[in-house]
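User: For a reading group we're discussing how well predicted structures match intuition. Take PorT protein. Before you show the prediction, I'll give you the sequence so everyone sees exactly what went in.
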Amino acid sequence: MKKAFFGALLCSLFASGLYGQFKENPILNLQNEDKRKLNWGYYLGFNQFDFQFDYQLDRGQDILVDKSYGFNVGLIGEMRINDYLDLRFEPGLFYTQRTLGFPGFSSQVDAIRETRSTYISFPLLIKASAKRFGNWKPFIIGGVSTALNLGSKQDSPDDNRAGEFRMKKQVYSYEVGFGIDFYTTYFKFSPSIRGVFALTDELVPDNDPASPWTSNINAMRTRGVFINFTFE
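Assistant: Thanks. Here is the predicted 3D structure of PorT protein, as structure tokens, for the group to look at:
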């Protein structure tokens, strides 16, 4: 009963806060927030990563990817271009895990490979905002990024024969997303959702050209979805 009461209380406070943001003539918060040439902040959030495979030949079943949720944390540096455009640099750390299921194996030891990745990402983005409506403002964001995968195992001499699934250290991607800036009394809060799509192949093939794990893979690229909560 206590948990239900506190949950209902939080929901009512959240709803009243949203009403305060969207009502017709609100008291304007942080009226000079977007006029500064440089702005700083940080973000927290979570992600879900996947792989997209391109195959050499159509030889039956695809590789299965079991996705899980990871987390994001990072910093924000923003330079104002004009009233509607900002240039943003958002270095961050992303942790994620994906489990690959390879067809054609009778043993789970051979069929299953876990990939734990810790990416240090360096995105350069353009944020295009609409006109501010009271204490909120929608925006779209997009750009390019490069990331270092600290769990890549690229330089390992072992491959899938020894249970090691190897990936390249550096990844180049493009990102696109949308969100809303909310101007509170003390800071700007911005929930957003973003898609990230790798441009480069991340697979390090096995040493054996006829490997049952990697010989039929032409390219393997990361794709993912981020939900971030930004504080500026």
